[in-house]
Amino acid sequence: MTLPIANIEVLYPLMFACAWGLLxxxxxxxxxxxxxxGIGWLSALGLAAVAGISLSGQGAGEVFAxxxxxxxxxxxxxxxxxxxxIFAVFLSMDYVPLAxxxxxxxxxxxxxxxxxxxxxxxxxxxxxxxxxxxxxxxxVYVLAGIRKDELRSNEAALKYFLLGAFASALLLYGIALIxxxxxxxxxxxxxxxxxxxxxxxxxxxxxxxGVGMLLAGFAFKIAAVPFHLWTxxxxxxxxxxxxxxxxxxxxxxxxxxxxxxxxxxxAPVMPxxxxxxxxxxxxxxxxxxxxxxxxxxVKRMLAYSSIxxxxxxxxxxxxxxAEAGAAVLYYLAAYGVMNIGAFGVLAALTRRRHALQEISDxxxxxxNRPVLALVMSICMLSLMGMPPLAGxxxxxxxxxxxxxxxxxxxxVIAVLNSVVSAAYYLGVLRAMYFQSADAEEYSPRPYLNFxxxxxxxxxxxxxxxxxxxxxxxxxxxxxxxxxx
Amino acid sequence: xxxxxxxxxLSAVLFAIGSIGVVxxxxxxxxxxxxxxxxxxxxxxxxxxxxxRGLMSGQSIVFFVxxxxxxxxxxxxxxxxxxxxxxxxxxxxxxxxxxW
Amino acid sequence: xxxxxxxxxxxxxxxxxxxxxxxxxxVGVLIHLILGQRAGRAVTNIVACSVVYVSFMLALNAFxxxxxxxxxxxxxxxxxxxxxxxxxxVDFSLKVDALSALMCMIVTGVGFLIxxxxxxxxxxxxxxxxxxxxxxxxxxxxxxxxxxxxLILMFVGWEGVGLCSYLLIGFWYTxxxxxxxxxxxxxxxxxxxxxxxxxxxxxxxxxxxAGHPGLSFANINANxxxxxxxxxxxxxxxxxxxxxxxxxxxxxxxxxxxxxxxPTPVSALIHAATMVTAGIYMVARLNGLYMAAPEAxxxxxxxxxxxxxxxxxxxVAQTDIKKVLAYSTVSQLGxxxxxxxxxxFGAAVFHVMTHAFFKxxxxxxxxxxxxxxxxxQDIRKMGGLRxxxxxxxxxxxxxxxxxxxxxxxxxxxxxxxxxxxxxxxxNYGLWAMGVMAAGLTAFYMTRLTVLTFFGEFRGGAQAExxxxxxxxxxxxxxAVLAVLAAIGGYVGxxxxxGGHNQIGAFLAPVVGHHEFQISAATEYALMAVSxxxxxxxxxxxxxxxxxxxxxxxVLSDWLTGGYEGMAGAYFxxxxxxxxxxxxxxxxxxxxxxxxxxxxxxxxxxxxxxxVTNIGGVWxxxxxxxxxHYLLTVLIGVAALVLxxxxxx
Amino acid sequence: xxxxLFYPLACLTIAGALGVVLxxxxxxxxxxxxxxxxLLAVYxxxxxxxxxxALQIIVYAGAVMVLFLFVITLLNLSPDPxxxxxxxFGAAALxxxxxxxxxxxxxxxxxxxxxxxNTPLPEGFGTTVVLARQLFSEYLVAFELTSILLLVAVVGxxxxxxxxxSPADMDAPAPGREA
Lengths: 484, 100, 648, 179
Known about the structure:
The complex is a heterotetramer.
Chain A: H1 12-29, H2 37-57, E1 63-64, E2 68-69, H3 72-98, H4 106-122, H5 126-144, H6 151-182, H7 187-196, H8 201-222, H9 230-237, H10 240-265, H11 270-292, H12 298-319, H13 322-348, H14 365-368, H15 370-384, H16 390-404, H17 408-434, H18 446-464, H19 467-480
Antiparallel strand pairs in A: 1-2
Helix pairs in contact in A: 1-2, 1-4, 2-3, 3-4, 3-10, 3-13, 3-18, 3-19, 4-5, 4-10, 5-6, 5-10, 6-7, 6-8, 6-9, 7-10, 8-10, 9-10, 9-12, 10-12, 10-13, 11-12, 11-17, 12-13, 12-16, 12-17, 13-15, 13-16, 13-18, 13-19, 15-17, 15-18, 16-17, 16-18
Chain C: E1 3-5, E2 11-14, H1 20-35, H2 41-68, E3 73-85, E4 88-96, H3 98-121, H4 128-147, H5 151-169, H6 176-209, H7 217-222, H8 229-246, H9 255-258, H10 264-273, H11 278-285, H12 287-291, H13 294-315, H14 321-341, H15 345-372, H16 385-388, H17 390-404, H18 410-425, H19 428-453, H20 461-465, H21 472-487, H22 502-511, E5 513-515, H23 520-545, H24 551-560, H25 571-619, H26 626-647
Parallel strand pairs in C: 2-3
Antiparallel strand pairs in C: 1-5, 3-4
Helix pairs in contact in C: 1-2, 1-4, 2-3, 2-4, 3-4, 3-10, 3-15, 3-21, 4-5, 5-6, 5-10, 6-8, 8-11, 8-13, 10-15, 13-14, 13-19, 13-25, 14-15, 14-18, 14-19, 15-17, 15-18, 15-21, 15-22, 17-19, 17-21, 18-19, 18-23, 19-23
Chain D: H1 3-22, H2 26-46, H3 50-74, H4 87-110, H5 128-136, H6 140-161
Helix pairs in contact in D: 1-2, 2-3
């Protein structure tokens, strides 16, 4: 019996992430401070190392035992996820004590969630991907409910867990059906089986049913209509920095896995299903934007905004060309950074035991805390699609790619949607600059302030100079498309 | 003669029954047990396919799914427990603080 | 018919200082942001004005290079390659040709004067640093819009000016109505922007498939023939919808009158002189595209003429000094679109320039009046300010005569060229509408001036005692603008009057040359008609309003017989009233109340409330009950599975 | 497996599954689930998955279900008469699930598994040795990953389930934490 350790370098980033999670878990047990700032630093350091290792390890050998690949696609997402997680960690370093979270396991759980995400984005086997998804989900279920004495936090964890478990079952059954027809769960083999076999009608039906259920499972994770209902409740109830992590890193990971499946394993059947993706994309963005208009709670508003952005991203998945795929990758980065900034400002306004989330709570921010207000403005404007910020460039890439692929009506719907979205993002700006309120005393929040300022700066930078990231996104995406 | 198709059809029925349980029951523990039923339906499908096609991988997959089910049970029941401590209820109808 | 000679090929001259033109005000923004109120009033004022002055000098330098260079000289500054998608790349490149050089001069020159004026106007405002940050940011965005060499970069400025406009309209946010006026302005603009973006995307896609990828203006104008005609017309129309949003034309004009909630210098800079002309600038920039889409051109002309006439009619009945000017702006912008629509791009730009002078002057004058009267804006409570605010009066009077089209002043030349071009184009109906609007313009502007500056003060003795002339920092810009409003037209004296229409020749390399086919005699006759109409408007208004706002009531009194004894004395007035004033006032009221407030505004509000209502219903879907969510997921899966089955 | 065995067993399994879903008493539900899991183990044996069958009984019936029963007794859950859905809701759920069952069941019933054309099972199919070889070669990553998964589950379960120290036991609020 031989162990397939020939190119174990492929696993280094993953192994490092898991090992670092264990290390942080161990160190945390001996932590003297209840603020866990040192633990936060340690976690951030490890995440930075993950990004570094994956950047340096690229090309060492692409695939490990048909299970995991360290191609450019994986590296892109390893770095993106690490960066987003570092942001989340920095936000948490001030937020955790503020919110009264007394469990030092917070940081190791973030690291394990990242490890699960890393597996998801680099898995080339459906089952490995499923395991990564579950690892990540377990950690996030717990993180959502980590404020045990908070009813809302409880409820968020419970809803996320029940719906997540249900969605996992659907996903798994979908994998079972695909396995039944193709005899494999390895993405490449699945694709070959689908492409090579001349199916009987019944077989293709089972396959399509499997694909449908698989898509339903993923639609849940990325919060696409009608599988989106958990999103606002969970984002609202979960600790703000966990919501930030979920809205950005988890969504990016789920989209990465979806792209790999849809565009590698299922590439032969996707043309038959593009109408379905079309409907999903259109209904998701319309639903998200329309309901967001009616939200007065900023966290819920951001949740619906995140649903709307799922819709925009699905436009790219629908188009399914190389340009569209690269655009989705770029948009995930842009969206991640600007959204983490927005959630971060929300976290920065936390008062102990008081959920500061209503739009009216932003009143007077422009006067009282100009830097935070500026950061929030940049993030809101970018989410709205205001040039030259990252959100605009991302939409530009996405929509032009979809146009080239011939989805004119969908692009028109998307552009009209972004008009509607301006109204609710503007509500926050209006509260900050056109309403006044008395200044409040805040404790110093250096990490939070640093993180949100950095997020805003990156949002601007990604908008002004998108080429490096877009170039990486193009290379990443082309690395997963099977060669002729 | 009983073919793998019989098992597959049975698994579909079990899956559907599980999904009914998830939706119509109010007791969180029972909802969760219904999810376990759905996972088991998937397992049956994997084993049946493995047998029908002579592929061992299906059995390995079941091994992993069991692990997932066990892990989900641990976390899920802990979530329910934490919830119960605060609200003294496991009825899904009583949990609607977060909405709209 | 018009002879239109297309623009010749351009010869690019690479320079690297263009980037500093928009960058200088941006540096100002950063300084305001970092220093805030700490810098103190004097430093803030000096920084705000000097960065715009730097831009002005650089723009002047560029302008001079173009002016003295061979015709068709173009300065270009490629900063870096911004977005690259496939083989297409959108560059961060700036370009100065005759058109953008002229616009740049207007933006920086008028902008500088308005900045100087603002230092006086905002002297008592505690939040001056924020104000100047916005104002500088606006200038930077507007300059980017003007200098951009491609549609996407222009869109950056396009959105930027919209945002600044929003922030500045709501600047005095203590009044909720003002904040919501800002929101309305922004949302209406966003609708236009969506159309702009879709149009740009269509061009992007069309040009890429035609083998000429890229959205630079040169590329679009040069390769428009390679595109399918339907796409050209569609894109031109969509971009024009964007222009109607920014430049306040039917049906997206509703925001501009509301936008008067902002500080008056803002109205002068953004809502009169610069931002609202962005739509005209964009169409002129894309003259190649529009010339290839005659259907779109007709739409532009009709919309322009209709807006000009409609807004002028509404202006007659307004009592708020800034609202009169706002509708006047809408009307004048209509003229510019009329000019664009008949292919007289040069005339449109000429009018942009003269309008910038006299309308900025009018707004600043109005600001001076409002300032002097301590925030009074109702012209019925003014009057007799001629002696109290002599500088303001003289400059305001010059602007009034200029916009009314009195021969010799700037407005006469540009408006006359537009009307002549319209007639020349063969659209006699549109020409007639333009002439009527010209008469109305003279009428309502005279009414405004007479009610404000003549007669007795009607605001009460206490208010009268506090009236004061504005400080030097406000009067000086007024004086400069008054000179420009008076003589600015002499760069475009038509050939029939012995001039050389230098501005037309200057712009010809960019927008093409426009040669009239009508005879000199016809041109003289047209001129006579418009001058006659202008004087008639002034005369009627003077007769009716020299005794105060009672002129508005003459009609009703006359109808109820209250004027018996004075019938003889007022006979003339009665006749004017019955024949002219009454129908106009009726129409004016009707247009304003029914069309503007109810139809257009109502439609906008209706759509908005429909959207939010749908949102409210859909919101109820998230009941909070996890069972409902699970059921939704189950139904979703069942539907998905069924759909997949049915399709395969 | 002979049809005479399969059909009665299938009926029993479905009955067990319905028992999980329909029982008002959580304990009975759990016991029905245990019965269903045992029956599934029987199928696994018939399908030549001996190790899986053993694991099914040890892991599921032995560990997971005990956990369930433990929580049920810990929470002292009794039959809840309020555990009923509105008719409309139930009908919608039933309709969707029936649709799912019919569509999936029909498709799976009718399908021909590719490569299943009466080929004899490979040597040692279903034995522990073959399964173990596979787990430690082509599924090595997945196998190792399950350890992380279980670790996360354990840490998470402990975090959520353990009782927190009362606030008095906590150290004094660190600087920067507001009251």
